[in-house]
Design goal:
The chain is an alpha+beta fold. It has three helices and seven strands. A hairpin with a 2-residue loop joins strand 3 and strand 4.
Length: 200
């Protein structure tokens, strides 16, 4: 009887673990962001949305959306006030220009460096990549999405569009989010990363 009970408990625990993993996401990025959004102390979700939160919607992971870009530094650029969704302004400069091939075409995006993060412990090498694409308002958040990058040692950098995420203001208007510059529009559908959020 003891063996049967032990086997039942192990099976139940394993089954729960499998279900939990499935709910949290398929990739490390998906599991991490879902874990953060489920945590009331970190989540940008409104209380009513957090109450029934099971996980974000993602485009299916696709390795073709992982590209290697050439980074051309722009060391002489000055810090400018980037507009946000509120009256707040945030100081950022174009750190460099990323060039990459995708689906037979050549694309370029400006990647930004924030003045405040340069002096924030753990974020000194942080780069900010906001972008717009043809899924905005039709599968992904209408205001565009962001990708977090780090300053590379060389002149190439990997962009994984599967890690594209929504600004916090996509979930809650109380947040102030940088507006994606029109120059960072990709005339292609980036069907990767976080999808638009269905608010209650």
């Amino acid at each position: 009887m003891q063996k049967i009970l032990t086997l039942f408990l192990l099976t139940s625990l394993f089954g729960c673990a499998q279900e939990k993993t499935s709910l949290l996401g398929e990739t490390e990025f998906q599991r991490t962001i879902n874990s953060e959004y489920k945590d009331a102390s970190k989540s940008p979700l409104k209380e009513k949305d957090l109450r029934d939160f099971k996980g974000l919607d993602f485009f299916k992971f696709d390795s073709s959306y992982v590209v290697t870009a050439t980074l051309k530094l722009t060391p002489d650029t000055k810090y400018l006030n980037m507009r946000t969704t509120t009256s707040r302004l945030t100081e950022k400069r174009i750190y460099g220009i990323l060039s990459f091939d995708f689906k037979g075409e050549r694309f370029k995006l400006n990647v930004y460096q924030g003045k405040d993060l340069m002096i924030t412990e753990g974020y000194e090498d942080y780069l900010f990549l906001p972008f717009l694409d043809n899924t905005n308002g039709n599968g992904s958040y209408g205001g565009g999405r962001y990708i977090d990058l780090r300053i590379p040692e060389g002149d190439t950098i990997t962009i994984d569009f599967n890690t594209a995420y929504n600004p916090y203001c996509a979930y809650n208007s109380k947040y102030s989010c940088p507006i994606v510059p029109r120059g960072n529009y990709l005339d292609v559908s980036i069907e990767a990363g976080v999808k638009s959020f269905d608010k209650h």
